[in-house]
Amino acid sequence: MISETRMDPAQRMKHLKGCCLCSAIQLADQFLQVEGWELDKNLFKCDIGKRDPIDPTMLDQQQKQSVAKPPPLVVDQNSIMAVCVIQEQGERQLGPFLGALKTQLDTYRVRVASEPFCIPVGGRGRPEDRWREAAQQGVERMLQMGNMGPKEHALGCLLLAIIPDSLEKVVYKPIKNVCYVQYAVSCQCIKRGTIEKKMTVVAPKLVTQIICKMGGHGWSIPAIKDSISPPDKGPKPTMAIGINMGKCLSSAMCAFTASVNIEFTSYVSVVEFLQQDDPAVGRKRSYKEREAEAFKWCFPKFVQAFARSNEGRKPARIIIYRDGVPEAEKPDFFKYYMNSGRKGEPGAIPTALDQLRSQEGFENYNPAVLLCIVSKRGPGAVKFFQITGEGRDGTPQVRNPPERCVFDRDVTYDYKFDFYCCHQRVTQGSITPTYYDVLYNDFIIKKEGQEGGMQAAKIQEFTQQFASIYQNWPGGPIRVPAPLIYAAKLSDMVADHLREHFNPRLESFLFFL
Predict the structure, then answer these.
(1) Domains 67-213 and 222-506 in one fold
(2) Total Cβ atoms within 10 A of residue 390
(3) Picking from 72-76, 85-89, 212-216, 504-508, which range would have the lowest pLDDT averaged per residue?
(4) DSSP string computed for 227-273
(5) Which residues are bridge partners to 187 per DSSP?
(6) Pairing verdict, β 405-407 and 417-422
(7) Where would you find the membrane-spanning parts of this chain (predicted)?
(8) Where are the domains of the chain?
(9) What is the pLDDT, as a whole number, of residue 256?
(10) How far apart are CA 196 and CA 198, in angstroms?
């Protein structure tokens, strides 16, 4: 199975040539010839376009040029108030680990205000109970150091858990429940094997995760502002929203993440559980309808958070990415989000905007909205190859397309706005491009009191750059835009570990990285 899925382009081309000789293709060819048609057995060729001005090989330089933002902590602007380390008794690698961690924090101009203290895990009882008790002791001690109550957000406190490799799946869940449900404390779990063998490699990524979980960001891409606005008019305030559906126990749930700054590095996160309808009360609603209902109540909250973070400036454009909607369900999805189809009942987005306009300061608020469906496997799991020449036997020599390629002609539908993106450079196997289907985009021509929608080239350029700003992967682009992977991470955290709503004081932090 692995050898088939990781087939390189040259091998896949030979398979395609072999498919043209199979009996089914030959039978189809004979049938068409009877009708006066001819089956073309050559591969379809199309043009590609490169939309992204950012060179991924220069990504490290981009990060260094963009100043990292330290987390907004308590003692002073650039310091962590307290660090608690929970570990098994007799741990030997703690000293070198804390030294390497401090060195990496210094590169971000972040220091630890007090010496880290340790809470040893007891040796009796079940592992999950012992680690939960140690985590509670560490959090309560840090709260006492900061004179904070148990219901306050322990801003500036960090819990580090050195987990044995054999107990990772057992103790990870109770530790996260203590930090993210019972309290509101930043938590970082690290496997013992990572400290012993790979600390020098993963230390930069580890520190970036810690800074993001505590309210800062490790790096940003300044050029992303130019992708959403003309350079002579300054950046347009734009908010990006990611939506991911998941399942927790027997209930469906929706994870929403929305950017609240113009660098697209700070987010507000919300999880809504979609409860089953009571048949005795009324008609049964579909999952898509209940998802749109949840989004309707979260949308004003996202816009208000954006305005608070940008000195009252409201987003003029709102870009919504939704993960993986089947082709047959897209009409229903559009109906519930934009137009319900029932007389007198608009969709979730127009209804949320009407609710927002009834509040003070949002009376004439009318942003441009873009709604896009993102699929890692497009219709038919399309593959693309770049032809580089011909071999001696006449077989085309092919390779994977270069990174940052956009396919928006010849292979897309004529009746809608869709395109493919090859975000990453693939050296093993054949690349599967990400498919984008734009269901709704406001008019490019401005309406009265409204910002105009985005042009196609700008949408593609912005989407390409958005795949390069995921804080958990500074080495290059990922396959989907950053808000979408954040929503997926949040959904996995709640569904697999928390199994309930997280502490609302953590909504403005990327605690799920």
Answers:
(1) no
(2) 10
(3) 72-76
(4) GGS-TTT----EEEEEEEEEEETTEEEEEEEEE-STTS--EEEEEEE
(5) 159
(6) antiparallel
(7) none
(8) 67-213, 222-506
(9) 92
(10) 6
First-to-final CA distance of the chain: 31
- pLDDT at residue 238, as a whole number: 86
Residue labelled with tokens 């929706």: 254
**Could you tell me the two tokens for 34?**
């009877």
Predicted structure pTM score? 0.83
Q: Which tens digits make up the pLDDT trace of 284-309?
A: 777 788 888 888 888 989 999 999 88
The total of other beta-carbon atoms located within 10 Å of residue 386's CB is 16
Burial of 36 (0-12, 13-18, 19+ CB in 10 A): exposed
* pLDDT of 24 strictly over 90: no
Q: What is the 3-state secondary structure (H, E, C) of 69-115?
A: ECCCCCCCCCEECEEEEEEECCCCCHHHHHHHHHHHHHHCCCEECCC
Q: For residue range 125-149, what is the model confidence (pLDDT) as tens digits?
A: 888 888 888 888 888 888 887 777 7
Domain spanning 222-506: CATH 3.40.190.170: no
Count Cα atoms within 13 angstroms, Cβ side, for 125: 11
User: Span 67-213: which CATH code?
Assistant: 3.40.50.2300
Residue 267, beta-bridge partner list: 259
